[in-house]
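Worked example (supplementary).
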Amino acid sequence: MPFMTESTEPNSQPKTDIKTAREKLKRIVDDNSFSELDRNLLPINILRFPGYDEKLKKARASSSENEAVISGFAAINKQPCIILIFEPLFMMGSMGSVVGEKITRAFELAIKKKLPVITITASGGARMQEGVYSLMQMSKTASAVYRHSQQGLLYISVLSNPTLGGVTASFASLGDIVIAEENAQIGFTGKRIIEETTRTKLSDDFQSARFIKEHGFADMVAQEEDLRPILAKLLQLHA
Amino acid sequence: MTAIEKSLKLIRHKDRPNAVDYINHIFPDFVELCGDRLSGDDPSVVGGIASFLGRPVTVIGQVKGRTLEENIKYNFSMNRPEGYRKTLRLMKQAEKFHRPVICFVDTVGAYPGIEAEENGQHIAIANNLMLMMNLQVPIISVLIGDGGSGGALALCAANEIAALENAVLSVISPKACANILWKDSSRDIEAAQMLKMTANDLKSMRIIDEVILETNQGAHDNPFIVAENIRMYLEKCLNKYKNMPVKKLVELRNEKFRKIGEYATASEL
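After joint prediction of all chains, the assembly is encoded as:
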């Protein structure tokens, strides 16, 4: 009987060349338009989970970030928005209290400023080391999306490699428009766990961006280099 | 024996009462309603309507089996997307008829299967999390046994959440956690200890509002008393929300989750 239900660690390393979330962000938003929010929010080892402090230290060193998501004001082709991008080098982009809080604050600020929100996720899911606090960030972020949506504001979700578990099962699936990035693995349960549970070898296509679109869970599949023009167009159509 | 060891032992006890037992006891006139009106019916989630305190309510429960036959029927309590969609359909129906929603949470987790992925397990859960936030009637959730991650959370976007004394809620199953930490899933008790997932842990972290007592030997020892304790809790909650304006009800539900999270800000360090 399987007990593992959600992936907290993706099965494979991102297939694309290693580059940081900030570099990716730079290619999407207008030059010098990004103004970061909530960089001062820092994770704490609230459960005194063994090894978490060291993991955080390593994550900070390898990613040069304070946490797994970067949020801020930006413009794309001169159209203002609030944008969030996940840094998978920081503990596989997992969502704990800080990530949940930053997402929630970003949506709340967007409500106040009447701005669209764009999220670019790359996450293994909820962060195990913060236990049930991480789990509850799923509800918290879903509530933030709902309140933003109630105001008639636009939310575009871009699913990058990989987007799994507690992140696909909360805010990232709730966009008005969902874009699956080419080469992304997208799903709820990680592939390896499904293979173990069902004792089946899954095809390479399973949970691919195309698979996600074919099953009706994304509006389109996009290459990374096309994200900027697509997002610009979509923002313009909702201006 | 530590608290978590005791809890895990008791929630896996072969005679532990499940959602169907509590529903039968607390809601004797329960009428089951089936199907998600889209692609199927997931028997691992039972839903329907009944009267409570002289008024109609919608009741939903994730069901754990006790025999092999039941376990197959209830898919070892692992719900499929059709199951989550059924719960949402029944909640929207409850909203239409202005009746409160009562959820019994008991799942090892959402089903990690091929069809579940193909049918949008992630979207089914996400939709529950979001649309329950806006539901215009009170939602009360009671954790009665296993609380496996997102699959359990999908029935927890409630105004009030209680847990039976030995019920648990966790971001990851202890076995999976042990497997990641030590590549040894037999160390699940150790992992469970670290995850702080007992009812009392959840209460002290303010994730849940109340712990409902079981009997000393666990709920199977005297299911009648435990069902009565749940009934009294539900009565108290429904009375609390009976005359509350809808807007306030929804606001309070959203605020409840808004507050959850522990972090530092740089100036504090």
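Two points are worth noting when inspecting this output. Residues 3-268 of chain B form a domain with the 2-enoyl-CoA Hydratase; Chain A, domain 1 fold (CATH 3.90.226.10). Chain B has a mean pLDDT of 96.
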